Amino acid sequence: MCNISFSIIENPWFIDLIKTLQPGYDFLSKQVLSGTLLESETSHVNICIMNKLSADNNFTIVMDGWTDPHRNSLWAFMLMTGSRKEYLLSLEDLSNICHTGEHLSNVIEEVINKMGAKKFVAIVSDNGSNVAAALRCANILTKYFKNSTLGSSWLNEAIKSKNIEGRGLKTYVETRWITVYECVHSVWRLKDALQHVC
User: Fold this and answer.
1) pLDDT digit string (tens) for 78-103?
2) So where are the chain's domains?
3) Exposure winner among 26, 156, 182, 195, fewest CB in 10 A?
4) The pTM of the whole model exceeds 0.90
C-alpha cells in the first residue's frame, strides 16, 4: 500500500482531506480497517485463489528468506503454477522461532497437504542455512531407515499394514535438484508409517 500505515486514517490532515473530497464519508477506526476489514478481504482473496488452484497442477513451492533493516528474519512462501502464475501463500516473521529449518519443513508439509502431493513438481529456494536445515530434517530420517536393517524392516511392515502406495523413502543427492522434492515428499507420504514405527 505505498508504505502508508493504516494509522493515517486517524491523522487530522488526512481526515480534513477526505472530508473535503467526500463530505458525507463515515470514517472507520484504525482497528476496524487493519483488523476486521483486512481479515475479511484476506479471506475473500484466499478463497478466490484456492478456487483457481483447485483445477490446476504442476505446482512449485518457492521460498526465500531475508533480513529487513530492523534485523527481522522474514520468509516468503509462494506457489507457482505450471502456467507461471505466482501466488503468495504467506509472508512470515520468523525472528522469534529458534528452529527455523524445522519450521520451514512444517510449512512445506502444510502446503503440500493442503493442495495434494500429486500436484507438485518441485520445491525451489536458495541454499541458505535454514533451507539446508529443513532438508537435513528429511534426509536424516531417510538415511536412518535406509541404513538400519531393523528400522527398515519395521517401516516396511508399517507401510504394508497401512496400505501406503508408492516406494520407500528417498535420499537427497546434491547433484540432482529433483531429489529435494522426492526426499521431502517421501517423508510426507510415509508420515503415518513413520509415526507408527517411531
Assistant:
1) 888 888 888 888 888 888 887 677 77
2) 1-55, 57-197
3) 26
4) no
